[in-house]
Amino acid sequence: MEYTEEIARAYAEEKNHLGFMIRRDLPGILAKYVRAGARALDYGCGAGLMIPLLKDAGFDVEGMDISDSMLHQAVKDHQNTVFTRIHSAAIPRPDASYDLVMLSYVLVEIASLSEMEAVIREVKRVLKPSGVAIVIVSSEQKFQGNWLMINNDFPQNRELASGCRVKCSVADSGVVFEDFFWTDEDYRSVFSLSNLNLLACSQPLGTADDGMPWKDELHSPLFSIYILGHCCPD
Ligand SMILES: C[S@@+](CC[C@H](N)C(=O)[O-])C[C@H]1O[C@@H](n2cnc3c(N)ncnc32)[C@H](O)[C@@H]1O
Fold this sequence. Notes:
CATH superfamily: Vaccinia Virus protein VP39
Structural class: alpha/beta
Bound molecules: S-adenosylmethionine
Number of domains: 1
Radius of gyration: 17 Å
Low-confidence stretches: none
Mean pLDDT: 92
Number of strands: 10
Oligomer: single chain
Number of helices: 6
Strand order of the largest sheet: 3-2-1-4-5-10-9
CATH class: Alpha Beta
């Protein structure tokens, strides 16, 4: 997706897009799988919305992205954080640099499984032996269904197949996302070809305790969180 300065600003101001359930569940996942105080890379950091959550969880985090506009916004909003402009699948750091690499809604913007594989292979290279990568992507269900958080009523979403274009907007906001549709099987095949092990996969749901007037969020996942590492699952 092409990010202009205007879109990057709107994206940064739309605080809800990361999603209630990500803010609810991610700190627990980080605490379970990664050493706190560890070195983290927010790959495809965009406007840096994930940076405060990672800093609050105790990480020494830097951001990288291919979009100048997103990085301008990130630099403006998040002082004392290093941001670097990169090219896809090239992380300008030595092998085994990070305890955590976060990819939040990055793979959904990649147009081919071969490019996705190149990105994950590069992530694997910069992960320490005990490090983990956390990959957040849209679920297969997101582009059909009736959600509190997401408006998906766009013609692109009527017939879904791997690699086709999809569109959605954050409810009650002008922020529109134009992504690629990939299945759970697609993502798992990329992880497997990249020789990173899938340690766990979480598909959070809304619960009555959230105090939110959830719709399909109560029984269907909006997104998937894959936890990848060099080691084997428990
Ligand atoms: C939907 S935004 C998500 C931003 C941020 N991770 C977040 O959760 O708020 C996707 C970001 O991924 C970046 N991106 C897309 N393809 C990329 C690639 N191949 N390598 C690095 N960044 C990429 C885009 O420029 C954009 O900033």
